[in-house]
Amino acid sequence: MKRTLGTCYYPEHWPEPQWAEDAARMAEIGLTWVRIGEFAWSRIEPTPGTYDWGWLDRAIEVLTAHGLKVVLGTPTATPPRWMLDRHPDMLALDAQGHKRGFGSRRHYCFSHSGYRADCARITLDLAKRYGQKVAAWQTDNEYGCHDTTISYSDAARDAFRDWLAQKYQSPDALNRAWGNVFWSMDYADFAEVGLPNLTVTEANPAHVMDFRRFSSDQVASFNRLQTDIIRRHSAAPISHNYMGAVVDFDHFATGADLDIATWDSYPLGFLSDRIAASPGHKRAFSRQGDPDFQAFHHDLYRSVGRGRWWVMEQQPGPVNWAPYNPDPLPGMARLWAWEAFAHGAEAVCYFRWRQAPFAQEQMHAGMLRPDSQPAPAYHAAAEVARELADMPEVQETAAPVALIFDYMSAWAWATQPQGRGFDYFNVVFGFYQGLRRLGLSVDILPPDTAALAAYKLVLAPAIATLPPAVLAAFAAYEGAALIGPRTNSKTADFSIPTPLPPNLPGLDCVVARIETLPPDLPVPLAMGGSFTLWREKLEGSARVVEYTTDGWPALVAVDGLHYLAGLPDEPALARILTRLCAAQGIDTTPLPNGLRCRQSGAHRFWFNYGAEAVVHEGRSIPPAGVVWEKIG
Ligand code: GAL
After folding, report:
1. Catalytic residue among 28, 38, 61, 313
2. What is the pLDDT of residues 397-417, one digit of tens each?
3. How crowded is residue 420: how many other Cβ atoms within 10 Å of its Cβ?
4. Can you give the pTM of this predicted structure?
């Protein structure tokens, strides 16, 4: 697989005579891809039904004439102002019932049928006109970004009622599934069911969960509306650019209709406002980003894209949207791209070509400054392009370890955290970090996978409901598994199952009690380290591998199948993973802080997220540096 680079370009932002020069410079530094169009609706259709295709025709011509391949975005994330006159009720409502107004972007409700019809119409126009001219597509832009998956509008309520009627067929069945006998919440008709906001105290969690499932389905069907149309007129692959740490719709479900998954990687922005980390960690990596956050998403989107994935937007310099926006260390714009390639990205596109001097993102760096002079990312991209010319082939290998990721569990534990800070993304990310600190490459698997046999170790923390196929796969699995805490602790209807969890094949143990722990109340483990935040008391005859110091089983097992009864801190996790790996013949090496490694085919890549050079097992890796070596 040849790996390539690109950028995100907005011809509508610049005078037309500048386009050819821009295109020539992109080609000259070795870019292959240019993504355009995703916010251009008001310039394509300035008034309803009046189109101005000329500029977009010419932009695509100029870019392709310079050898660039165009990724065309459908502009549905930015409905023009006139759309609101046509559909005054298309705006989403937040949980407080406030309208989310015009004047930025993503101001639409996924359930509004009138807006959907207009999206279908503009998508059809674009697909017919450019279906044979562009090299790839992007649907919309960052579904769910700015907290836009869930809308409490009337359109959402009506569509939710239909969805419930389809799912349950009768109000009695819904009442039974949700447990509406509790607090006299029974419904006599689907038309009585409201949305789970503005209730006096918490809404029924089963109600919230169904609304979240529905909201996720709406994203998938909104996307499918576009992919179905595009496919009828174009053979070019279709992608969508997901945003980091957005988990409130199921990317596997939406991704099933796409050819390529892409994601938008802003390492410094994410570190400052999306990662639960200590102030010391944030300070140490403030100009580099968290050493595992990008890799986690690379591995996740490799899975969402069924092997085909890109970074569609790569941070080029300081962004504008985090609480603080430091300049990346020299070298990071190169390191981030190589890290994506090492994890299997087909392409990395820097966002954006030229910094815009106007509007919301005027303080966001580009590859060029607003005066068109090169900014550091311009040189970094040129350097990566030269390196790719020498080593275009990065092969892939299955990792020895797999981690299961389940969006529905993110909704489950957001609905019912039970302890402040119990956040599914951070729980799973913690296990991922533990694996990577031991030098391991990881594959991320969807929650309904039965394909465990390829892995020597599989982790499945905090999955609310293990589907029957996965339970069957665990029953047949011969490697090691680390399951829990909280795994399989809810039925599909969001109740506590009986027999009590975890209900794992052959493992005689039940979770008899759970407790959550404030930060200053960890539960120490007899072999060192602690459980923090979440802890379970297990009963049963399963073999106990580790105990807590207060005498309860901390880790139990039957054969290779292990159940963990709490959230381990760093030392406890390192010990448990090291032991499991050793038993499976997987090599582990504790890595220095900030150093990470990834094995891809015949190469091993080393990434130094640290600000100082690192010497590790005889090799020296410069600060913010990447080196690779042939193995085998
Ligand atoms: C992304 C978005 C881009 C741009 C960028 C700025 O989330 O897709 O359009 O806003 O952030 O960092």
Report:
1. 313
2. 889 999 999 999 999 999 999
3. 10
4. 0.98
